[in-house]
Amino acid sequence: MAKTGDRAQVAQIASSSQSWRAAFLSSNCTPQPRLETDLGVTYEPPDFVGLILLAGEDDVMYIIQGHTPECTHEWEWERTGSYPVHPAADWLEVPVRGGSPSKSHPPAHPTYILKSFQWGHSAVMPLHPLNLPKPGQPEHSQGSNSNSITRHPTPCLCRPNPPTPKLPKPILQQRFELQIHQILTMGDHESSKLDHENHLLLDQPLLQLPVELLRKNLRSARFEVEKDGSFVKETLKKTATDSVNGRISQQDVLKTLDSMITRVKGVKRKLTAFSEEENRLHRHEEARVKHLTELYGMYSVDDVKYEGWSRTRLDRLLTDYLLRQGYVNSARALAKERGIELLVDVDIFEQMNRIRQCLLSGSVQEALAWCTAGDTKKELRKMGSNLEFMLRYQQYIELVRKSVHTQPSEALAHARKHLWPYRETYPKEVFHACGLLSMLPEHAARIEPYRELYSPARWQMLADLFTTTHHSLLSLPSIPLLHIALSSGLSALKTPACHSIHPNSAAAPSHHTSLSLATSVCPICSTELNELARNVPHALHSKSHVEPDLLLLPNGRAYGKARLEEYAKKAGLPDGMVKDLRTGEVYNVQLLKKVYIS
Amino acid sequence: MSLLELQKELKKFNQASKLTAAVQDVDQLIEFLVNARDEVASANDPHTTSLTLTKLQNPVSAQLDAINSDLGKVHKSQNAFHKALSRSLKETKGTLPTDHDPMASQTALINRAIAMHLLREGQFGVASTFIGEAQPQSETSPSPEETRRPPSITISRPDTPPDAMITDADIPSDLTAFQSQALQEKFAGMYSILTSLKQRDLYPAIGWARENSTELEARGSNLEFELCKLQFIWLFKGPQVNGLPATEKNGVEGALKYGQENFKRFQDRHLREIQKLSCAIVFSPNLADSPYCHIFDISLAFEEVASSFTREFCSLLGLSAESPLYVAVTAGALALPNLVKYTSINRAKNTEWTTQNELAFETPLPKSMLYHSIFVCPVSRGQTTDANPPIILPCGHVLARESLQKLAKGIRYKCPYCPSEGVVKDAKEIIL
C-alpha cells in the first residue's frame, strides 16, 4: 500500500485528545537515519526502520515505531515515562526497558538508553512495512502492508516477544516498537489536555468589556441625539408658529436657525467621535475573538503554540493588574512592548484612575461629572448605586467643615438640593447630615458617627466605592484577574515541600529530563513567589508521584536510578559508585536499597 | 456554542450597520437647515420665512426619525452580538471566585514578583517604569492617611499601629529597590551573554561558566564542557562557516590549539568525547562521510546551549528557569475550572477554600508542572509533611510516620504490604 517514494501515505489517527498526522516517509533520503544504542551497536537503514509521526502543524517529529534486525536483549519500549524531546534538538533519548512493564510489577531488568537517534533535519525516515517478518518467515513478506498504524490507533504497541534464543544472529530475532507520544506519558494525557471552554474562564471579561463599552457608547449617542433632536424639533415648531403669527422678527428667525445649525453640528461632532470609538471597539473585539479562538487550534498544554498563547495571557493579566493598581505608564509600556494594545483596555482604566486619584486627593468634582455624564446617571440608578449620593454627602461634609465658624447657608442649600430628596432611601445618612451641623470637627472626635464623617478615611472609602461602581457598571470582575489566577495557581503548584524546613528536600523534579540532570527550581520555591505562597493551601494529591526506580542512599535520601547513574557518569565516578545529587556524598552501589512506593 | 461560532457572529456584527449611517443622516439634517436658512436669508420677507419654516418641519422630523432608526439598527445588532456572546460563554460553567481575595493584602509581594518577572524576561524598560511607579505608591499609600489625619485623631490613637504600618509597607518596597538593582545587573549580564551567543560568540558564555565552574559542577551540569566543545567544533568548521578571520587560530589548526589549551581540565570527566573530537581531525577533509559527522552537525547547538545556559544561570541565582509568574498563572488557568466548581458548590456552605491547609479538591496539572516528589501515604491517603514525614521500613515499603505509629503495637509493627514484621525504631525517615 505504501510505496517507497515521497510521503506515501498520511494516516489520520484520532487519539483520545489529539489528531495526529502520521506520515510514512521515504527511505531514499539523505541524511540517513541511524540509531545508536548504549551497547555500541549502530543501526542504519535498511537494518533500522522506523515510522515517523508528525504531530501538530509545526511538524515536531516523534518516532513511534522502530525495528532493528538484531537485538541482544528482549526489549520492549517502555510504556510509561516521559520522553522529553526538545523541539529544537535533533536527537532524543528513549529509555528502553526489558521485560514487560506493568505498574504492579516493576521490571527487574536494567534500563537501557537508546542514544543519538539521528534523523537529520529533513525529517525523513525510511519507509518500511510495519509488519516485519516474523522469525522464520520468508523475506518477501516485507513490504506486504503498512496498516498496523491504523490498527493500533493509540500509541500503545507492545506486543509479545517471539521466542528468540533459538534463532541464530543476525537473523531478525525480534522486533521492538517505539512509541513516543509527545513529551508526555499516557497517564498524563488527561491532565495536559486543554478543555477550551473552561480554559477561557479567565478570559470572559476580555470579550465582554468591548461589548459593554459599545453599548455604553451607543447609549451615550442616543442620549445626545435625543437631547439635541428634541430641542431642534421644538424650536423649529415654535419658530414656525411664531413666524406664521408674525410674532418673531426676520433677524430672530435667522438667529434661531443658526443656533439650531450649531446644535446639529455639535451632534454631528459628537456622533463622529462616538463612531470612531465604535470602530475602535470593533477592532478590539475582533482582535480578542481572534486571540481566544487561537486556543481552539491547540489541544494540549505541551503544544509549542500554547506557550506563546499563555505568555500573551500573562501579559494581558499583568497589564490588567497594573492598570487596576494605577500604574498606567507601566501598563502602557508593557502593552506596547508585547504588542497587545488591542487586547487590553488602557484608556478606560486610565480615566478611572484619574478620577480615583482626584477622590484620593479630596476632590469630588471629577467623580460627580462621571456620574452624571450622558446616561450614566440612569444606569447607576438602575443598579441601585449610592455613589452619587455619597459624593454629594461628602461635598456637604466639606461645606460644613469649611463653615465651622460662619453661617452654614451654603451647606444648607446643598443639603436641601442634594440630600433631602433622598431622606427615604438613605434615612440614616440624612439624619447624620442634619446632626453634623451642630458638631464641630474638634468635638466630633469622641462621638462615633460624626468622627467617622469628618475622618479623611472617607476619601479612601469613596475612591473604593467609585472603583467598585465603575467595575460593576462595565461588568468587570471586582478583583484583578491576576489575583484569581495566582491564588488558584499557587495552590495548585504548592506542595508541602515548598516551605519545608529541610531546604534540601525541595526542588527535586519528579519528572526527569534527559537533556539535563540539573534540577529546575520549583516556581513556588523560587524567591519571587515563595513568600506569596506561604499562606495559601497546598494542592491535594491522591496519588504518589515519584521518580521511577527509587533507590535509597545510606543518608536517607532517595533518587531515581536513571538519574543517579547519569549523574555518576557526568561526575566521572568509577563504576559501581554513585553520588548524592544534592549533598555530593559518594556511595557504593551495593549500599543502595530499593524503595517501594505503592 | 463555542467561540468558533462566535467568530461568524462577529463577522456579521462587523458588517452590520454602525453609527456612520447616523452621521450621514445628521449631515443631511444640517443640509436641510442650512438650505432653509439660506432661503430665509435670501428672500428676506416674512411670508417666505413662515412658509419655509413650516415646510421644513416635516423633513426635519423625518430626518430625526431616520437618525433614531439608524441608532436602533445599531442597537439591534449589538444586542444580537451580545446574546451570541453570552451564549458562547455559557458553556464555561460558573463564575469567577471574586468573593474572597487572598491576594488583596499581598500587593507588595505581587509587585515584587512582577518586577522580578519583568527583569528576568529582559523587559528592563518596562521594569524600570514599573518600579518607578510602584515604589512611591507603596510608600505613600499609607502616609497620606497619616498626614491627612488631623492631629487630634493621631493623639487619640495608640502610637504603635501607625509605626508598624510604616515598617510593614517599607520593608517589602525597600526589598524591591534593593533586589531590583542587583537583579537587573545580573539579568542584563545574562542577556548580553545570550546576545553574543546568538551572534555565535561563545567566549562570554565560556567565561561565565569558568567563573562559576565549581557551582556548576556541584549541580552536575557540564555546561562549561559543552560550551568548550561547541567552540572547538565552531573553530573546526573553519572560516567558510564561522566567518572568523582565517588565521592560525581558526580552522582545524585553531581548533586543535584550542582543544590543547582547554580540554585538559575536562579529561577525567569527558575523556571519551574529547577522544572523539580529536579523532575527527583525521577526517577533516571528508568529515561528512566520517563516523563523526553527527557530532559536527551543530545547526541547532547554539539554541540548545543558549537554553541550558539560561537555565543554569537562573538556577545559580536560586530562581527557576521558567518565570514562576508565568508557570503560576498558567497553572492557575488550568486549575481554575476545578476551583470554580468547588466554590460554586460550597458557596452555600459559606466556607472559604483558602482557609484550609490543603485544597479540598484535586487540581490536575500536567507532569511538566510537578516540581517535587509527592508521596501520598498508602495507609492514611494523606500527603506527607515535615511533621509527618515518609518512613521506610526495612522491607522497602514506605509509609507516613503517623500511619506507622497507628499500625504499631507497642514497639513492633507488621508491614501492611508484605509479611515482614519489625521494630518501629528500625524504620528510617526518607527524603524523597
From TrEMBL, chain A:
Transmembrane segments: none annotated. A zinc finger (RING-Gid-type) spans 522-583. PANTHER family: E3 UBIQUITIN-PROTEIN TRANSFERASE MAEA, MACROPHAGE ERYTHROBLAST ATTACHER-RELATED. Involved in the proteasome-dependent degradation of fructose-1,6-bisphosphatase. This is Protein FYV10. The lineage of its organism: Eukaryota, Fungi, Dikarya, Ascomycota, Pezizomycotina. It is found in: Cytoplasm. It comes from Xylaria arbuscula. Belongs to the FYV10 family. Residues 128-155 are annotated as: Disordered. Residues 522-583 form the RING-Gid-type domain. Keywords: Cytoplasm, Metal-binding, Zinc, Zinc-finger. One of its GO terms (molecular function) is ubiquitin protein ligase activity. GO terms for biological process: proteasome-mediated ubiquitin-dependent protein catabolic process. Residues 139-151 have a biased composition (Polar residues). Residues 348-407 form the CTLH domain. Its main location: cytoplasm. Signal peptide: none annotated. SMART domains: CRA, CTLH, LisH. One of its GO terms (cellular component) is cytoplasm. PROSITE patterns: CTLH (PS50897), LISH (PS50896), ZF_RING_GID (PS51867).
From TrEMBL, chain B:
It is found in: Cytoplasm. Residues 133-164 are annotated as: Disordered. GO terms for cellular component: cytoplasm; GID complex; nucleus. Residues 186-243 form the CTLH domain. One of its GO terms (biological process) is proteasome-mediated ubiquitin-dependent protein catabolic process. SMART domains: CRA (SM00757). Belongs to the RMD5/GID2 family. This is GID complex catalytic subunit 2.
